[in-house]
Write a structure and sequence with these properties.
Layout: H1 2-20, H2 23-34, H3 38-54, H4 56-66, H5 68-88, H6 92-120, H7 126-143, H8 146-155, H9 157-178, E1 182-183, E2 186-187, H10 196-207, H11 216-242, H12 246-267, H13 270-274, H14 278-298, H15 306-316, H16 319-328, H17 336-364, H18 380-401
Antiparallel strand pairs: 1-2
Organism: Iodidimonas nitroreducens
Main location: membrane
Pfam families: MFS_1
């Protein structure tokens, strides 16, 4: 059954990551065919996250009430619609609409998988299963680079997006056929029928839970800091400071993206091995923070060393799957869906806010500032400031996280979960 789940859940999340990161390759094509400038490309990139973040709370309520199968299949229809709208676009407004719909449709794809893992498997397996889902899905980042560029060369960008729409439609059918309503004797919905007011009150209770507060800064900054490099600053930094051309920049960033696949696989099983989540997260986050600070002070390390540092940033962020497992341990069985989506709302909010804030930091250190609608090379001091800003965010997040009590996967003194039925365990 686990293999069957990942055959459906993994590729669906690959599509989400692919669409999320596709603008980097689509940008030049859109600039030529539809005269979209740099400001428009930046707005389109943010439009996906806007739609994604706006749906997190409704998705959490829906996952709790209706279960992942129906919610994920329904939202895949919106993904297909968004890809089709984008493929047919002839102006920036339609492109934006397509991106927003893509973000809305992709909103439950990771959270739905996490709800299945949380409700159908033992709590100590959550980090490992989530890490595997992240590693599989993050391969979509790789597909959104050179392979996507080659596909566009062969078919054109519109046909490519129509192909993504068709793939999303296929996932609708696959999810309805292959995803169960219950698994291992446990319903994948909470079984509770709540109105909107009651659901919102439940979200408010999660946000008011003081146990979550020390984790909030880390959820907000942990993923957003590395995405600020992979999706925003990595390419310009390699071009402005090292003078690398597009292919060479792509090779470095491809190596960095591979770290996002390897990292979760390495960090995910460690909480079960050491029976600790906090003390897996702390050294992982500390390593990433230290590399950001090193880049801030060094500014321009030797080019032979830089790809390794970028790779370690990306791979080291594999600790984040364990941090998510720590957050999951705070939620009751009935509130897992909305609890995980509150966490994901913090994560995606961090992505959406850290990038423009780092842009303001870079602009402050730019010196003679270019107009906002023009691209200009940044000096080394600007990039050092960006790295320092991201490192400082992680440092403050880590200091907050250190206040949280540890979350242990194995608690022998604790009575078994009454909702779990051992007679239905696999194998």
């Amino acid at each position: 059954m686990l293999i069957r789940l990942f055959i459906v859940l993994g590729p669906a999340y690959i599509l989400s990551q692919f669409l999320r990161n596709s603008i980097a390759v689509l940008g030049p094509e859109l600039s030529v065919s539809l005269d979209v400038g740099s400001a428009g490309l930046g707005t389109m990139t943010g439009a996906f996250f806007l739609g994604f973040a706006a749906m997190q709370l409704p998705v959490g309520m829906a996952l709790d009430r209706f279960g992942p199968r129906r919610v994920m299949a329904s939202f895949m229809i919106i993904v297909a619609l968004g890809c089709a709208v984008f493929a047919m676009a002839d102006d920036l407004f339609m492109l934006m609409a397509g991106r927003v719909l893509m973000g809305v449709g992709c909103a439950p794809l990771l959270m739905g998988a996490m709800v299945i893992f949380a409700r159908a498997f033992e709590p100590d397996r959550f980090a490992s299963l989530t890490s595997l889902q992240l590693a599989i899905g993050n391969s979509g980042i790789l597909l959104a680079t050179s392979p996507f560029a080659l596909l566009i060369e062969q078919t054109g960008w519109r046909i490519s997006l129509f192909g993504a729409a068709a793939l999303a439609c296929g996932f609708v059918i696959l999810m309805l056929l292959a995803l169960p309503e219950s698994l291992r004797g446990r319903s994948l919905s909470s079984g509770r029928s709540e109105g909107l007011i009651q659901s919102l009150q439940g979200v408010g209770q999660i946000l008011a839970d003081r146990r979550l507060w020390p984790l909030m800064p880390l959820l907000f900054c942990g993923y957003g800091s590395v995405v600020s490099i992979t999706a925003l600053w990595g390419g310009p930094y390699l071009a402005d400071i090292y003078g690398l051309q597009a292919v060479d920049r792509g090779n470095v960033l491809l190596l960095m993206a591979s770290g996002s696949v390897i990292g979760p696989l390495c960090f995910g099983p460690l909480d079960r091995r050491f029976n600790s989540r906090k003390w897996i997260v702390v050294p992982g986050c500390g390593m990433v923070m230290a590399i950001f600070m090193l880049l801030a002070f060094w500014g321009r390390p030797p080019l032979w060393l830089l790809p390794g540092l970028f790779f370690l940033i990306s791979a080291g962020t594999g600790y984040f799957s364990v941090a998510v497992a720590h957050a999951r341990s705070l939620y009751s069985y009935e509130t897992i869906g909305r609890g995980m989506t509150v966490s994901n709302m913090l994560v995606m909010g961090g992505v959406g806010i850290l990038q423009p804030l780092s842009g303001l930091v870079a602009r402050w250190f730019q010196g003679d500032m270019a107009p906002l609608d023009q691209m200009a090379a940044l000096p080394e001091n600007a990039y050092r400031a960006v790295f320092g800003f991201l490192g400082a965010c992680l440092l403050l997040s880590l200091l907050s996280y250190l206040r949280a009590p540890d979350s242990k996967p194995f608690k022998p003194q604790e009575p078994p979960d009454p909702a779990f039925r051992p007679e239905h365990r696999d194998g």
